[in-house]
Amino acid sequence: MGAVLLATVQRGTLYICGTPIGNLGDITLRALEVLKGVDLIAAEDTRHSRKLLDHFGIATPLTSYHEHNEKGKALELVRRLEQGEAIALISDAGMPGISDPGQEVIQLCLEKGIPLDVLPGANAGLTALLLSGMPNDHFLFHGFLPSQSGARKKELQNYAQLPFTQIFYEAPHRLVATLEDLWEVFGERETAVVREITKLHQSVHKGTLSTLIHEFKDTAPRGEICVLTSPYIPVPPTGGEKEWRQEVQELTEQGMKPNDAMKVVAQKYGVSKREVYQAVLSQKKN
Predict the structure, then answer these.
(1) For each successive 10 residues of the chain (286 residues), what is the average pLDDT?
(2) Which residues are within 8 A (CB) of 42 and not within 5 positions of it... i.e. 6 or more apart?
(3) Would you give the end-to-end CA distance of the chain in angstroms?
(4) What is the CA radius of gyration of the chain?
């Protein structure tokens, strides 16, 4: 491990600073140095961020940068960066640009060759993943799903058969509805609901989707929430040689080559292509 190096703020540089997601003790020393040293801090909610800065005695000027002014404000921030100001970008919690404003100004800086740096910090999705105990060798982060059920289910259809742990953010008042839509689209699935991460009442709720739906119908959830679903595990359909032969015949009648049809049926039923071939061959012999 190298020596601990505190930040030296460079002029004309955008600093993407991770901030705590609940526990103020999770701020990094480097982030504090940068927040003190820049000319301006662009914050998602200036009133929320002022509490964080006051706690650490940081008096750097603030400007708002949120989803409703992001495009226009990104241009303004870039102009100030081009004039040599050093600017830090923060969100209400976690990493800017990850389910929070930030992508617009980051992309503009990259297009214009403006230096930027990322100061790592807390992330709710990754923290929830480890707390949940879900498989983490491969996982997908989706952030927030659409707020309306119809649009939500339509999007979930794209994810239903992915062989990865999947991570979603959700508001407490939509949790039950989202769990119900997940159950309808994904079917019964091992799931974790992780709440109030790094805070006093942090909790992990694990079970099937149906049990979690009943749990949170009985006890309304509070606080920020991550929902994690276990990977899809395909279950081969039941059926024997009769079904294999019938489906091979149907596919070949639709124009598929017999060899390809047997391969498709073998994959569907989780058997070898040779077994399907032997089944088809035995019918011809009879």
Answers:
(1) 68 97 95 97 95 97 94 96 98 93 96 96 96 97 96 96 97 97 94 97 96 94 95 81 90 90 86 87 70
(2) 62, 63, 64, 65, 73, 77, 87, 88, 89, 90, 105
(3) 73
(4) 26
**Six token digits for residue 101:** 């404003």
Classify residue 71 as left (phi > 0), alpha (psi -120 to 50) or beta.
alpha
Opening angle at CA 110, ends 82 and 33, nearest 5: 65
Give one DSSP letter per residue of 155-218, joined into a string. Answer: HHHTTTT-SSEEEEEE-GGGHHHHHHHHHHHH-S-EEEEEESTTSTT-EEEEEEHHHHHHHHHH
- The two structure tokens encoding residue 30: 């480097």
Structure tokens at 73: 């404000």
CA distance 32 to 6: 9
DSSP state for residue 232 in the 8-state scheme: P
Phi, then psi, of 3 in degrees rounded to 5: -65, 155
| Alpha-carbon span 108 to 214, nearest angstrom | 46
Q: What pTM did the predictor assign?
A: 0.81
